[in-house]
Amino acid sequence: MRTKITAAITAIGAYVPEDRLTNADLEKMVDTNDEWIQSRTGIKERRILKGEGLATSDMVVPAVKQVCEKRGISPEDIDCVIVATVTPDMMFPSTANLVCHKVGAKHAFGFDLLAACSGFLYALTTGASLIESGRYRRVVVCGADKMSSIIDYTDRTTCILFGDGAGAVLLEPNIEGYGVLDSILKSDGSGGKYLNMKAGGSLHPASIETVTNKEHFAYQEGQAVFKFAVVGMADVSYELMQRNNLTADDIAWLVPHQANKRIIDATARRMGLDDSKVMMNIEKYGNTTAATIPLCLWDYRKEINKGDNLVLAAFGGGFTWGATLVKWAM
Question: Which CATH architecture is the domain 181-327 placed in?
Answer without folding.
Answer: 3-Layer(aba) Sandwich (3.40)
